[in-house]
Amino acid sequence: MRRKPIVAIDGPAGAGKSTIAKIVARELGFLYIDTGAMYRAMTWKMLKCKVNFKDENKIIQIANKTNIELKQLKDKLKVSVDGTDVTKKIRTEIITKNVNTIAAIQGVRKVLRSKQHKIGQKGGIVMEGRDIGTTVFPSAEKKFYLDAKPKERALRRWKELKAEGKRGSLENIAAAIRKRDYRDRNRRVSPLIKAKDAIVIDSTALTLHQVAQKILNEINKP
Ligand code: DC
User: Fold this and answer.
1) Ligand 1 centroid distance, CA of 1 (Å)
2) Domain tally for the chain?
3) Parallel, antiparallel, or unpaired: how do β-strands 76-81 and 68-73 relate?
4) Is the shortest distance between the CB of 130 and ligand 1 below 6 Å?
5) Do 190 and 130 have their domain in common?
6) How much is the pLDDT for 216?
7) Domain CATH number, residue 42
8) Claim to verify: residue 103 and residue 75 sit in the same structural domain
9) What residues make up the domain containing 46?
10) Which atom of ligand 1 lies nearest, measured to the CA of 39?
């Protein structure tokens, strides 16, 4: 039997990747993997160890010994680090601020990439991140690059925070997204770029369900 496809979804922060990837995975009965959560989990571990962020060798050494697990529970993805549930802890501001530094270290990416490979190689997976279609699974059967105008992405993030009872000025959120975009796109290793064969979807004027439907239509094309 042919193995089920690998679906890669990449794009900048706030383009709606997680929600859309979850819908697509549910509809297809595929496993959903959020690779950003893995980088966040690694960042949580480094902060917990109080490692000097300039000491790359030490960071890589710790990364090699860290056990990150993702477990799908209904619509949620439970993330644990060495047995500790960090699902909520990895969504805090301090992690968001520091994750780019950890994600820019080649040795850390190597560790996580090998884990992502193991999880996805059998197919039947929707994996989202920044470098899935370019580096992790360059031969994925279906690749998508999701984007949206920066203003819209900031507004979505602002609404998300509001729904969680948190506050933040739209200006500050937009500035933080700009900074993260810049760092993701300009880092030396595995920067965020569109894979040549990825289908680009601009979600600025679309609902999340409309985007998910577009992706499903592409996947189901004979
Ligand atoms: O998707 P996210 O915002 O939760 O990802 C957090 C950070 O992790 C993001 O700023 C860049 C990094 N990341 C990465 O470098 N490569 C991936 N495949 C996924 C995320």
Assistant:
1) 34
2) 2
3) antiparallel
4) yes
5) yes
6) 97
7) 3.40.50.300
8) yes
9) 35-111
10) 8
- Closest ligand 1 atom, residue 184 Cα: 11
**Which of the listed residues 88, 111, 134 is the one where a domain comes to its end?**
111
129 and 182 housed in the same domain: yes
Render the burial of 61-74: b for 16+ CB within 10 Å, e for the rest: ebbeebebebeeee
Domain membership flag for residue 90: yes
- Closest by CA position to 77, among listed 111, 43, 127: 127
Q: Give the position, in ligand 1's atom list, of the atom nearest the Cα of 13.
A: 3
| CA 32 / ligand 1 centre spacing (Å) | 15
Instruction: Tell which residue, 102, 68, 97, 72, has the closest CA to residue 85.
Output: 68
Find where tokens 């950003």 sit.
36
Last residue of a domain, one of 86, 111, 136: 111
Q: Are residues 177 and 207 in the same domain?
A: yes
Amino acid at 202: D
Same domain, 16 and 72: no
pLDDT averages per 10-residue partition of the chain, 222 residues: 90 90 95 96 98 97 97 88 97 93 96 96 95 96 95 90 85 90 89 94 93 95 80
> Ligand 1 centroid to 100 CA: how many Å?
7
Residue nearest to atom 18 of ligand 1 (CA): 129
Same domain, 104 and 152: no
- Which residue, among 99, 73, 77, has the nearest Cα to 88 in the 3D structure? 77
How high is the pLDDT of residue 163? 87
Q: Which residue has the tokens 């059998």?
A: 122
With the most atoms of ligand 1 within 8 angstroms of its CB, the residue from 99, 128, 187 to mutate is 99
